[in-house]
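Troubleshooting entry. Yesterday's outputs looked truncated, so today I'm pasting the complete records for two proteins to confirm everything comes through intact. If either block looks cut off, that's the bug. Protein one:
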Amino acid sequence: MEAPARLWPPPVGAYAEERELFRLLQNMLEELLIHKPDDPIQFMINHLKQNNDDAPRICVLGPPASGKTTVAMWLCKHLDAIRISQETLLFKEILALTKEAKAYKERKEEIPNALWANLIQERLSNVDCIKQGWILEGFPENQEQAWMLQSSGIIPRHVVVLYAPDTVLIERNSGKRLDPFTEEVYHTTFDWPSDPLVQQRLVKPEDLSEQEMSKKLLKYHRNFPGVFQIYQKVLKSINADQPSMDVLSQVLTYVQTRHRSAAPFTPRILFCGPPGSGKSLQAALIAQKYGVVNICCGQLLKEAVADKTKLGELIKPYIDNGYPVPDNLVTKILAERLNALDCMTNGWVLCGFPRDIEQGEQLQKSHFSPNRVFFFNLPYESIMERLSQRRIDPVTGERYHATFRPAPTPEIQARLRQNPRDKEENIEKRVETYYRNIKELEDFYEDAFYVNADQDPHVVFEFIESCIIKPLPCKKLKSL
């Protein structure tokens, strides 16, 4: 009999996901619609040659003295991106429009929004910004600037907005000092440099009076709602009134996230964890809500034996005698199930396999690589409490627990039995086996998520769900 036709063979799906082909095509389409080139084919070729779809495009916004410069400079160091600010555009760049903008500054007139937008567009079109990405500090200041940047094709992927009470900002502003050599910002109370040479060259920035600061804050609060309206889908507000490393950590975490795309996504979920960590329960919840196929490796082997398939006949002696089933047989049975049409079209959630790196490598060679991997963590005491007190009713097959779900009547309690696997000495062996192999498996699945399984199952489910629906963080960014 011929094998059934497969709509979406695993190698094709895995190839498209690994190389992010859908995101690549989506980005190209966006660029075409923004720039409307006369020769779209050549434009797409040039776009692919630039290879900059992962380059950061970040706006750092916030009121005066909220720490925009500190955050922007820190991000540039970590992401190797180019920082663009009012100061760099007016005093550090040689652009065609710089002279015109400086003339407004010298006359103490406000630089028009259109001129700012054109200056930014000119700077961001340079090769360094295209290749390395950019951090735009303090722009856009108002809705008109934001619209102008959008119409020029300057669309940030992440917008970070720092906020703090006005009283805190006014206090910060009074002690603000600037290093003219490095442009780093310090504070007489909160962040004073330890280097005496740096201390000596610090200067007070302009417009330090409390009255001027109040005017700037009023202007910011008046303009920000319009900016928020445009960027709300890619905007993250971060409290700047906390230790600087906490602020920077939150900013970095956000800019590492990827926004959800419209690319087709077939979940291939893997749950690993010690016995009693709740893998089966979470797999059932995920399968129920998202319609993916719930596959338990142990159950799959028992079904193969019960159905008397060819592979089932081969593994029956191992199961009957309590021996481990050879990896090659387990992989064949698993591959046969994962190759079924329901798994291909709906996706799957798998627990119980792989248990070590060799099994993980076999799964990968079979072209069934998971796209979300979760490792459940549970303390040894909790494992013992969960498993050693489990009991089963031999009459009804119902499961009970001495602490969490006691038998409803003395009659049922009297006939409960314990599975030999749940005796303490057997639990110890299973846990020991798990932890003996897990380190290499964790290294193998480097993009895995780690779950605190010692909490309410619904809390665990919410965390797992959030990790499934969000794209994986960008790998290229440096960590703290």
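Protein two, checking that the full record survives here as well:
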Amino acid sequence: MASPNFGTVIRNVRLPCTEQYSGTSTWDIACLDGRVQSITSSGSCVPHDEATIIEADGGVVVPSLCHSHIHLDKCFILGQCDPLITGSLPEALRVTNKAKAEFPKDVDNLYARATHLIRESVEAGVTAMRAFVEVDTTVGFACLDMGLQLAKEWAEVCHIQIVAFAQEALYESATSTEPGPNYSLLCEAVSRPGVSVVGSAPWVEPNRTRALKNVELILSLAEKHNLHADFHLDYNLDPDTVPMVWDVLQQMRQRSWSRSSGKLVTIGHATRLGLFSSGEWAELKRATDILPLEIVALPQSDVYMMGRADPSGRVPVPLAGRTINAPQVYRDHGVRVALSVNNVENAFTPQGSLDPLTLASLGVALFQVGTEPDWRVLLRSVSTTSKEAIGVMHGGNASGESVDEGDGIVPRVGDSADFVVVHGARRWQSTVLSPGFDRTTFYKGNVVARRRAQRWNANTGGEISN
């Protein structure tokens, strides 16, 4: 890692172009003390003799990527679960809970799986993530201890926000008047140094009344400990179910929760919002212009799990309707929606990649979007919009302009020097449509990961080489 006293220069790199840069094909980006110091035409930057020089070879630089919603403890456990028979949500909960009971007994496995996730993510270009780790009577603090330790170990490479997360119900039954032992453990967890977020899944509570109490308890903990709050919310496609996002917003109003506090309330999944009318989206836009509520959709999980055929074989919701259509929602209603990976190789999401760019690529087909503005929305959704959704980047740039004015994708002098160079790409569109494997990741102006493929084929011959 380069010393910040001498900086880093990325040579011969293509920008995710706007008209402002259309006259020059490649650029040099100089980074110093974690910020972009200059952007000049290739060959014109004269770096310090001891600066780190990275040759991009004409690759494209885009903002570094972000997992705005990822489960650090439940990744890569499908081989530790009972075989899936139906693939349903109740089955996923059952087999995962059984596997989860073994986590405290094999802490080495817990650390190894989470480390694998972080390493591969950073190599793909991720420099920020919100990592959920569960706290309950089954796992105690085993997952939390793991998350806090890894957040420290990777702090110079990737910003890892740890969520003390209650996946299980806080109330033991529909008649319980007080929260149970899971809540007591959560209260203890959020007081631990290094915890940035408190979260829960209100939909697992025994009834709607207890689900609303769950929201109140989590928001109160967030206020008391000065934390972000994050809910797995509105995880259904039932048009007759009243979305709980309105209740969350009402709670935020009653608590005078404001953007000036710097603490966000984020909702993940939120599949029910995909059924919103134009009027409902307009109402949500008005509310979120004032209140710091962010939305993260999880396509790989939600398309797999939601909208399954009923006993007659009827599919109630089209494929794309099982998650929030981020490009359309931004285009038609001005609401930004982040996209994130959520789970990898577990019963909730058996398939998919850790690479957020492949998630953006999936969105092109899933949402049937063929225009460059929509592709830029998808690129933002896994990078800058995801960072905004977890509070590590604000809706503007170093000069104070809004993201809409500057797009947020093209780097500017003074911006944080957090990038990923996609080396095989020759235009920004390719980073969304067919993202290449070879990449270099930059965090705070320093190189933190390189990923290269070894190539050989029987036709052209030659030795295997990088």
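Both blocks look complete. Sanity check on protein two: The CA atoms of residues 25 and 98 lie 55 Å apart.
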